Amino acid sequence: AQKITQTQPGMFVQEKEAVTLDCTYDTSDQSYGLFWYKQPSSGEMIFLIYQGSYDEQNATEGRYSLNFQKARKSANLVISASQLGDSAMYFCAMREPGDKIIFGKGTRLHILP
Amino acid sequence: NAGVTQTPKFRVLKTGQSMTLLCAQDMNHEYMYWYRQDPGMGLRLIHYSVGEGTTAKGEVPDGYNVSRLKKQNFLLGLESAAPSQTSVYFCASSWTARMELFFGEGSRLTVL
Q1: What is the DSSP code string of A10-30?
Q2: Neighbour count for residue A10 (Cβ, 10 Å)
Q3: CB distance from A38 to chain B under 8 Å?
Q4: N- or C-end of chain B: fewer Cβ atoms within 10 A?
Q5: Spatial CA neighbour of A100 closest among B33, B90, B67
Q6: HSE toward the beta carbon, residue B33, CA cutoff 13 A
Q7: CB A103 to CB B105 under 8 A?
């Protein structure tokens, strides 16, 4: 069974609009962490944001914020004021016990001018 | 500052051949990971290491072996390559699993 589910294979968003990329996860552990990474067409992996399961506040990094809803097991990425350079593949990932880090299948985001 | 370096960047193998991918990091990271990326599948964890001399299985370990004899190096071996192992392989490292992963540029392997 998938432990990280990203239900949106692709999204098209108008430039300057806010974007929410969905991520749900499955774990029975109390201690875990959630990450988001960006992969542009050039192929490199870029870290965006991290949220620990015990962190009470939602993580934010510049235009990126993580909407962490523990009871619903969701960790959606919100990008405010999208830019053309945000067009990329986005991956949600989870740190499991034993420090294994697993990824979802990704969402391809297209920003339209 | 090299960061995470993967060698080789590209390789073509015939079925049954063996090869080793080398991942080297110069950031004194404890944790190192090997992933494979296939279209529509995201990144899947092959093996990982939480310190020198340690290794552990990930989600898709079959057909691969790893070694972490030195802290800065994490080797991924294919003993008998199969076409199903055609993929882009990424190595990543971090100080802890609660901090960002630093990725290599990827190694594209084709098995004919």
Answers
A1: EEEEETTS-EEE--EE----S
A2: 10
A3: no
A4: N
A5: B33
A6: 27
A7: no
CA–CA distance, A76 with A74 (Å, rounded to integer): 6
Mean pLDDT of chain B: 95
Please provide the average confidence, as pLDDT, over all residues in chain A.
95
Mutate to test the interface with A, among B27, B32, B35, B37 (most CBs of A within 10 A): B37
Residue A82 tokens, joined:
């999208």
Contact yes or no for A51/A104 (Cβ under 8 A) = no
* A102 in B contact zone (CB under 8 Å): yes
Contact between chains at A91 and B106 (C-beta distance less than 8 A): no
- pLDDT attached to residue B58: 96
**CB neighbours (10 Å) of residue A28?**
6
Q: Contact at 8 Å (CB) between A21 and A6? A: yes
Position A85 scores a pLDDT of 97
pLDDT of residue B1: 62
**Alpha-carbon span B47 to B51, nearest angstrom:** 13
Per the CB < 8 Å rule, is A44 touching B105? yes
